[in-house]
Description:
Radius of gyration: 19 Å
Distance between the termini: 40 Å
Oligomer: single chain
Number of helices: 5
Low-confidence stretches: none
Helix content: over 70%
Largest sheet: none
Mean pLDDT: 86
Shape: elongated
Order of helices and strands: HHHHH
Amino acid sequence: MNIIDVEDAIYDLEQAPYTYDNAAELASLYIIQAHMSKEGITGTTAVIQEEVEDILPAYRQYCQVKRQYQCHEVTEQAVVEALRIVGEEIRDLFNLIYSGTDMGKERKILHNIVETLKEDLDKKSKNC
């Protein structure tokens, strides 16, 4: 069990009808969530800053490799690997932001962002 699993369970229970069992389970999950994120928002903010600083260099590296590919200097695999690294950095940041949420409304916004991105990508891939 990781913090994301706990927060997903919290989100699901917050959306469910309020019952005694749900309230008891939510209380337990809130305690687990607090314990798992001991650093609190201040510690998370510092880690988020580090993640943000990882994204730009990875993206710049991807752009450089892409240019090299267009000049026939590197293989397609090099481009794919560079883009995979960018994606990992973005995913790490997103997961970190998600783990810092403590309200269902925050998590719902993040879920909506993911859904919107997926819809946008689906539309673009249909136009290709």
